[in-house]
Request: fold
Amino acid sequence: MSKNVLILPGDGIGPEIVAQAERVLAAVNEKFNLGIETTKGLIGGSAIDATGGPFPDETMVKAKAADAILLGAVGGPKWDSLDMAIRPEKGLLAIRSQLNLFANLRPAILYPQLADASSLKPELVSGLDLLIVRELTGGIYFGQPRGIRVNDAGEREGFNTYIYSETEIRRIAHQAFQAAQKRGKKLCSVDKANVLEATVLWREIMTEVGKEYPEVELSHMYVDNAAMQLVRAPKQFDVMVTGNMFGDILSDCAAMLTGSIGMLPSASLDQNGKGMYEPIHGSAPDITGKGIANPLATILSVSMMLRYSLNSAEAADCIEKAVGKVLDQGLRTADIVSDGCQQISTQAMGDAVLAAL
Ligand code: IPM
Ligand code: MG
Reply:
Protein backbone atom coordinates (compact mmCIF):
# COMPACT_ATOMS: atom_id res chain seq x y z
CA MET A 1 0.00 0.00 0.00
CA SER A 2 1.38 3.39 -0.90
CA LYS A 3 2.05 5.98 1.76
CA ASN A 4 1.48 9.64 1.29
CA VAL A 5 3.89 12.30 2.52
CA LEU A 6 2.92 15.95 2.40
CA ILE A 7 5.85 18.29 1.92
CA LEU A 8 5.55 21.85 3.20
CA PRO A 9 8.77 23.75 2.37
CA GLY A 10 7.58 27.04 3.90
CA ASP A 11 9.74 30.16 3.94
CA GLY A 12 13.31 31.40 4.17
CA ILE A 13 15.80 28.54 4.02
CA GLY A 14 12.84 26.10 4.24
CA PRO A 15 12.69 25.38 0.48
CA GLU A 16 16.51 25.01 0.24
CA ILE A 17 16.87 22.46 3.02
CA VAL A 18 13.67 20.61 2.16
CA ALA A 19 14.89 20.18 -1.42
CA GLN A 20 17.88 18.21 -0.13
CA ALA A 21 15.74 16.19 2.29
CA GLU A 22 13.36 15.35 -0.57
CA ARG A 23 16.23 13.93 -2.61
CA VAL A 24 17.21 11.75 0.34
CA LEU A 25 13.62 10.61 0.82
CA ALA A 26 13.34 9.75 -2.89
CA ALA A 27 16.58 7.78 -2.73
CA VAL A 28 15.57 5.61 0.24
CA ASN A 29 12.10 5.23 -1.21
CA GLU A 30 13.64 3.59 -4.24
CA LYS A 31 16.34 1.70 -2.40
CA PHE A 32 13.96 0.12 0.12
CA ASN A 33 10.92 0.03 -2.15
CA LEU A 34 8.80 1.93 0.37
CA GLY A 35 5.99 3.00 -1.95
CA ILE A 36 6.06 6.58 -0.72
CA GLU A 37 4.28 9.22 -2.77
CA THR A 38 4.76 12.90 -2.08
CA THR A 39 2.59 15.97 -2.57
CA LYS A 40 3.42 19.60 -1.88
CA GLY A 41 1.55 22.27 -0.01
CA LEU A 42 1.80 25.86 1.15
CA ILE A 43 2.23 27.09 4.70
CA GLY A 44 3.44 30.24 6.41
CA GLY A 45 4.50 33.34 4.53
CA SER A 46 4.49 31.69 1.11
CA ALA A 47 0.88 30.66 1.78
CA ILE A 48 0.02 34.23 2.82
CA ASP A 49 1.43 35.54 -0.45
CA ALA A 50 -0.50 33.02 -2.52
CA THR A 51 -3.80 32.78 -0.64
CA GLY A 52 -3.97 35.52 1.97
CA GLY A 53 -3.65 33.19 4.97
CA PRO A 54 -0.81 31.15 6.55
CA PHE A 55 -2.68 27.81 6.66
CA PRO A 56 -4.97 27.47 3.62
CA ASP A 57 -7.86 24.98 3.65
CA GLU A 58 -6.22 23.09 0.83
CA THR A 59 -3.15 22.48 2.97
CA MET A 60 -5.32 21.33 5.86
CA VAL A 61 -7.17 18.84 3.64
CA LYS A 62 -3.87 17.47 2.32
CA ALA A 63 -2.39 17.34 5.83
CA LYS A 64 -5.33 15.38 7.19
CA ALA A 65 -5.10 12.91 4.30
CA ALA A 66 -1.32 12.42 4.56
CA ASP A 67 0.39 9.62 6.47
CA ALA A 68 3.16 11.99 7.47
CA ILE A 69 4.23 15.59 6.88
CA LEU A 70 7.67 17.06 6.30
CA LEU A 71 7.98 20.77 7.02
CA GLY A 72 10.84 23.21 6.43
CA ALA A 73 10.39 26.45 8.36
CA VAL A 74 8.05 29.43 8.41
CA GLY A 75 8.36 33.19 8.87
CA GLY A 76 10.52 36.08 7.81
CA PRO A 77 10.86 39.86 7.98
CA LYS A 78 8.55 40.31 5.01
CA TRP A 79 5.58 39.26 7.13
CA ASP A 80 6.70 40.56 10.54
CA SER A 81 4.49 43.63 10.42
CA LEU A 82 1.31 41.64 9.79
CA ASP A 83 -1.31 41.25 12.47
CA MET A 84 -0.51 38.40 14.90
CA ALA A 85 -3.58 36.47 13.76
CA ILE A 86 -2.33 36.03 10.20
CA ARG A 87 1.42 35.83 10.72
CA PRO A 88 3.30 32.86 9.19
CA GLU A 89 3.90 31.37 12.67
CA LYS A 90 0.12 31.09 13.07
CA GLY A 91 0.12 28.60 10.21
CA LEU A 92 2.57 26.39 12.04
CA LEU A 93 0.65 26.66 15.30
CA ALA A 94 -2.61 25.94 13.46
CA ILE A 95 -1.38 22.77 11.78
CA ARG A 96 0.08 21.49 15.08
CA SER A 97 -3.15 22.21 16.88
CA GLN A 98 -5.64 21.08 14.24
CA LEU A 99 -3.90 17.77 13.74
CA ASN A 100 -3.54 17.32 17.50
CA LEU A 101 0.22 16.91 17.27
CA PHE A 102 0.67 17.34 20.99
CA ALA A 103 3.85 15.32 21.52
CA ASN A 104 6.96 17.02 20.22
CA LEU A 105 10.11 14.90 20.39
CA ARG A 106 13.36 16.83 20.05
CA PRO A 107 16.43 14.62 20.33
CA ALA A 108 19.76 16.34 20.96
CA ILE A 109 22.47 13.93 19.95
CA LEU A 110 26.06 14.94 19.57
CA TYR A 111 27.73 13.33 16.62
CA PRO A 112 31.23 12.55 17.96
CA GLN A 113 32.69 14.21 14.85
CA LEU A 114 31.17 17.52 15.96
CA ALA A 115 32.46 17.64 19.54
CA ASP A 116 34.64 20.62 18.57
CA ALA A 117 31.75 22.50 16.98
CA SER A 118 29.93 22.84 20.30
CA SER A 119 30.48 26.01 22.29
CA LEU A 120 30.91 23.83 25.38
CA LYS A 121 34.07 21.91 26.24
CA PRO A 122 34.19 18.59 24.35
CA GLU A 123 34.28 16.57 27.59
CA LEU A 124 31.01 18.13 28.73
CA VAL A 125 29.16 17.17 25.56
CA SER A 126 30.89 14.10 24.16
CA GLY A 127 28.42 11.23 24.10
CA LEU A 128 25.49 13.57 24.68
CA ASP A 129 22.17 11.90 23.86
CA LEU A 130 19.13 13.54 25.34
CA LEU A 131 15.52 13.80 24.34
CA ILE A 132 13.28 16.75 25.04
CA VAL A 133 9.58 15.92 25.03
CA ARG A 134 7.76 19.21 24.56
CA GLU A 135 3.99 19.58 24.92
CA LEU A 136 3.03 21.28 21.65
CA THR A 137 -0.66 22.13 21.47
CA GLY A 138 -1.38 23.71 24.85
CA GLY A 139 0.05 25.97 27.50
CA ILE A 140 0.62 29.68 27.03
CA TYR A 141 0.92 29.31 23.25
CA PHE A 142 -2.80 28.56 22.99
CA GLY A 143 -4.31 29.66 26.32
CA GLN A 144 -7.32 31.99 26.32
CA PRO A 145 -7.87 34.80 27.02
CA ARG A 146 -5.02 36.53 25.27
CA GLY A 147 -4.48 39.82 23.56
CA ILE A 148 -3.54 43.44 23.96
CA ARG A 149 -6.13 45.67 25.59
CA VAL A 150 -6.51 49.04 27.24
CA ASN A 151 -6.87 48.72 31.00
CA ASP A 152 -8.94 50.83 33.39
CA ALA A 153 -6.08 53.26 33.80
CA GLY A 154 -6.15 53.86 30.05
CA GLU A 155 -2.85 52.11 29.51
CA ARG A 156 -2.27 49.32 27.00
CA GLU A 157 -1.47 45.90 28.47
CA GLY A 158 -0.59 42.60 26.87
CA PHE A 159 -1.82 39.37 28.42
CA ASN A 160 -1.65 35.62 27.87
CA THR A 161 -2.92 32.62 29.76
CA TYR A 162 -0.74 29.76 30.94
CA ILE A 163 -3.19 26.92 31.21
CA TYR A 164 -2.97 23.12 31.19
CA SER A 165 -5.80 20.68 31.71
CA GLU A 166 -5.25 17.40 33.49
CA THR A 167 -5.91 15.50 30.25
CA GLU A 168 -3.26 17.48 28.40
CA ILE A 169 -0.68 16.86 31.10
CA ARG A 170 -1.54 13.20 31.43
CA ARG A 171 -1.17 12.38 27.74
CA ILE A 172 2.20 14.10 27.36
CA ALA A 173 3.31 12.40 30.58
CA HIS A 174 2.55 8.98 29.12
CA GLN A 175 4.47 9.82 25.94
CA ALA A 176 7.46 10.96 27.97
CA PHE A 177 7.49 7.96 30.30
CA GLN A 178 7.19 5.60 27.33
CA ALA A 179 10.06 7.35 25.58
CA ALA A 180 12.15 7.07 28.76
CA GLN A 181 11.27 3.38 29.04
CA LYS A 182 12.82 2.78 25.63
CA ARG A 183 15.96 4.77 26.52
CA GLY A 184 17.91 5.30 29.75
CA LYS A 185 14.81 5.10 32.02
CA LYS A 186 15.34 8.54 33.52
CA LEU A 187 12.77 11.29 33.15
CA CYS A 188 13.18 14.86 34.36
CA SER A 189 9.99 16.92 34.39
CA VAL A 190 10.65 20.63 34.07
CA ASP A 191 8.27 23.17 35.59
CA LYS A 192 8.07 26.39 37.57
CA ALA A 193 6.06 24.94 40.43
CA ASN A 194 7.53 27.44 42.90
CA VAL A 195 5.60 30.21 41.13
CA LEU A 196 3.02 28.98 38.62
CA GLU A 197 -0.09 27.04 39.69
CA ALA A 198 -0.46 25.51 36.22
CA THR A 199 2.85 23.80 36.79
CA VAL A 200 1.98 22.76 40.34
CA LEU A 201 -0.72 20.65 38.70
CA TRP A 202 1.80 19.59 36.05
CA ARG A 203 4.13 18.25 38.74
CA GLU A 204 1.30 16.49 40.57
CA ILE A 205 0.09 14.67 37.45
CA MET A 206 3.63 13.74 36.38
CA THR A 207 4.17 12.15 39.78
CA GLU A 208 0.85 10.32 39.59
CA VAL A 209 1.45 8.97 36.07
CA GLY A 210 4.94 7.99 37.17
CA LYS A 211 3.45 5.34 39.47
CA GLU A 212 2.45 3.44 36.33
CA TYR A 213 6.07 3.38 35.22
CA PRO A 214 7.99 2.20 38.30
CA GLU A 215 11.07 1.30 36.24
CA VAL A 216 11.50 4.94 35.15
CA GLU A 217 13.24 7.20 37.63
CA LEU A 218 11.32 10.50 37.75
CA SER A 219 12.81 13.77 38.94
CA HIS A 220 11.51 17.35 38.88
CA MET A 221 13.44 20.52 38.14
CA TYR A 222 12.54 24.19 37.95
CA VAL A 223 13.02 25.58 34.47
CA ASP A 224 15.63 28.18 35.45
CA ASN A 225 17.75 25.47 37.03
CA ALA A 226 17.16 23.19 34.03
CA ALA A 227 18.52 25.87 31.69
CA MET A 228 21.57 26.18 33.89
CA GLN A 229 22.08 22.41 34.17
CA LEU A 230 21.84 22.04 30.38
CA VAL A 231 24.92 24.18 29.94
CA ARG A 232 26.66 23.01 33.12
CA ALA A 233 26.32 19.22 32.94
CA PRO A 234 23.98 18.21 30.10
CA LYS A 235 24.83 14.52 30.25
CA GLN A 236 22.91 14.16 33.52
CA PHE A 237 19.71 14.13 31.42
CA ASP A 238 18.12 11.26 29.55
CA VAL A 239 14.57 12.45 28.78
CA MET A 240 13.18 15.84 29.76
CA VAL A 241 9.46 16.59 29.59
CA THR A 242 8.04 20.08 29.75
CA GLY A 243 5.34 22.45 28.58
CA ASN A 244 5.13 24.28 25.28
CA MET A 245 7.02 27.49 26.06
CA PHE A 246 9.72 26.01 28.30
CA GLY A 247 10.24 23.29 25.70
CA ASP A 248 10.69 25.87 22.96
CA ILE A 249 13.40 27.62 24.93
CA LEU A 250 15.20 24.58 26.35
CA SER A 251 15.32 22.83 22.97
CA ASP A 252 17.18 25.73 21.35
CA CYS A 253 19.60 25.59 24.25
CA ALA A 254 20.02 21.82 23.90
CA ALA A 255 20.54 22.22 20.16
CA MET A 256 23.63 24.32 20.66
CA LEU A 257 25.16 21.61 22.82
CA THR A 258 25.32 19.48 19.70
CA GLY A 259 27.32 22.07 17.79
CA SER A 260 24.60 23.71 15.76
CA ILE A 261 20.89 24.26 15.72
CA GLY A 262 21.21 23.10 12.12
CA MET A 263 21.59 19.52 13.33
CA LEU A 264 18.37 18.97 15.30
CA PRO A 265 15.36 17.19 13.84
CA SER A 266 11.98 16.85 15.52
CA ALA A 267 8.81 14.82 15.42
CA SER A 268 5.39 16.07 16.42
CA LEU A 269 3.00 13.21 16.99
CA ASP A 270 -0.68 12.72 17.64
CA GLN A 271 -2.19 9.97 19.80
CA ASN A 272 -1.98 7.47 16.93
CA GLY A 273 1.59 8.15 15.88
CA LYS A 274 0.73 10.26 12.85
CA GLY A 275 3.33 12.95 12.69
CA MET A 276 4.81 16.08 11.28
CA TYR A 277 8.59 16.26 11.04
CA GLU A 278 10.64 19.43 10.96
CA PRO A 279 14.05 20.79 11.85
CA ILE A 280 13.82 22.75 15.11
CA HIS A 281 15.56 25.79 13.62
CA GLY A 282 13.65 28.59 12.00
CA SER A 283 13.59 30.09 8.53
CA ALA A 284 16.92 31.94 9.00
CA PRO A 285 16.22 34.94 6.76
CA ASP A 286 19.79 36.18 7.24
CA ILE A 287 21.24 33.26 5.27
CA THR A 288 18.34 32.59 2.90
CA GLY A 289 19.31 32.14 -0.73
CA LYS A 290 23.03 31.93 -0.01
CA GLY A 291 23.21 28.16 -0.36
CA ILE A 292 24.92 27.77 3.00
CA ALA A 293 22.13 26.45 5.23
CA ASN A 294 22.66 23.08 6.89
CA PRO A 295 20.14 20.56 5.51
CA LEU A 296 21.05 17.84 8.03
CA ALA A 297 18.35 18.65 10.59
CA THR A 298 15.75 18.25 7.84
CA ILE A 299 17.40 15.12 6.45
CA LEU A 300 17.42 13.67 9.99
CA SER A 301 13.75 14.68 10.28
CA VAL A 302 13.09 12.43 7.28
CA SER A 303 14.76 9.63 9.17
CA MET A 304 12.55 10.25 12.22
CA MET A 305 9.54 10.22 9.89
CA LEU A 306 10.51 6.86 8.46
CA ARG A 307 11.00 5.47 11.96
CA TYR A 308 7.93 6.85 13.75
CA SER A 309 5.24 7.22 11.08
CA LEU A 310 6.21 5.10 8.10
CA ASN A 311 7.42 1.98 9.86
CA SER A 312 10.70 1.86 7.94
CA ALA A 313 13.39 1.64 10.62
CA GLU A 314 15.82 0.13 8.15
CA ALA A 315 15.67 3.17 5.87
CA ALA A 316 15.93 5.47 8.91
CA ASP A 317 19.09 3.68 10.10
CA CYS A 318 20.53 3.97 6.62
CA ILE A 319 20.05 7.78 6.54
CA GLU A 320 21.55 8.21 10.01
CA LYS A 321 24.57 6.13 9.03
CA ALA A 322 24.98 8.14 5.85
CA VAL A 323 25.00 11.39 7.84
CA GLY A 324 27.65 9.92 10.14
CA LYS A 325 29.73 8.93 7.13
CA VAL A 326 29.56 12.40 5.60
CA LEU A 327 30.70 13.93 8.89
CA ASP A 328 33.52 11.36 9.03
CA GLN A 329 34.61 12.59 5.63
CA GLY A 330 35.10 16.04 7.17
CA LEU A 331 32.37 17.65 5.09
CA ARG A 332 30.64 20.52 6.89
CA THR A 333 28.22 23.33 6.16
CA ALA A 334 29.27 26.77 7.44
CA ASP A 335 27.51 26.44 10.81
CA ILE A 336 29.50 23.35 11.87
CA VAL A 337 32.79 23.90 10.10
CA SER A 338 36.00 23.66 12.16
CA ASP A 339 39.72 23.38 11.55
CA GLY A 340 40.73 20.64 9.14
CA CYS A 341 37.23 20.26 7.68
CA GLN A 342 35.94 21.17 4.28
CA GLN A 343 33.16 23.73 4.05
CA ILE A 344 30.50 22.82 1.52
CA SER A 345 27.15 24.21 0.34
CA THR A 346 23.61 23.08 1.16
CA GLN A 347 23.34 21.31 -2.18
CA ALA A 348 26.77 19.67 -1.84
CA MET A 349 25.77 18.36 1.58
CA GLY A 350 22.70 16.81 -0.04
CA ASP A 351 24.96 15.29 -2.73
CA ALA A 352 27.29 13.88 -0.07
CA VAL A 353 24.47 12.25 1.92
CA LEU A 354 23.06 10.74 -1.28
CA ALA A 355 26.47 9.37 -2.20
CA ALA A 356 26.87 7.89 1.29
CA LEU A 357 23.45 6.17 1.24
C1 IPM B 1 9.86 26.02 17.20
C2 IPM B 1 9.68 27.43 16.72
C3 IPM B 1 8.19 27.78 16.72
C4 IPM B 1 7.69 27.65 18.15
C5 IPM B 1 7.85 29.17 16.13
C6 IPM B 1 8.39 29.35 14.73
C7 IPM B 1 6.37 29.45 16.17
O1 IPM B 1 10.44 28.30 17.50
O2 IPM B 1 9.28 25.09 16.56
O3 IPM B 1 10.57 25.81 18.17
O4 IPM B 1 7.81 28.59 18.94
O5 IPM B 1 7.16 26.59 18.48
MG1 MG C 1 11.73 27.34 18.86
User: Anything to note?
Assistant: The domain at 103-138+167-269 is CATH 3.40.718.10 (Isopropylmalate Dehydrogenase). DSSP finds twelve helices and 14 strands in the chain. The pocket of 3-isopropylmalic acid (ligand 1) is lined by residues 75, 89, 92, 248, 280, 282 (CB under 6 Å). The longest strand covers residues 3-10.
